[in-house]
Amino acid sequence: MGVYRERASWPGWAHLLFLGPCAAGLAAIGWAIWRGEGPGWTYVPFLVLASVGLVWWRMRYLALEFGPESAAFGFAGLRRRVPRERIVSATVEEYSVARYMGWGYRFGWERRERAYSLIGYPRGVRLVFDDERDRRWKVFLSSSDPEAAVRALG
Asked: Model confidence over 95-108: pLDDT tens digits?
């Protein structure tokens, strides 16, 4: 048993679909500010678009690392490592868009249920674990090879 590492990314068209309008808006607002044509409030949409672009940039890929000692997963800034002794189960499942209402970092129907999901990855690992305060969590993680990830946990 080795360590399974994956860095899953959104498809290229999803980046363009989101960042294209964001970049165009930033350029238009920046041009207006630079020329002195925009009122003072023009800085607000500029900062909002810049923040949205930064969040997208930080969430551009999902990092997974499964091994005999632990499972680590997350988008940049939203990462978690779970020791093997706290993992209750790891199974391969299909992603349910209806359950999580979209892609990205999503909340599920149950209280402590989350998904780290990407468009273009119809399957992934369903990880059930107990945290430090013995609360049970259920997490779906998009993966291109969920079988290998589950095998790496042993």
From this structure: 999 999 988 889 99
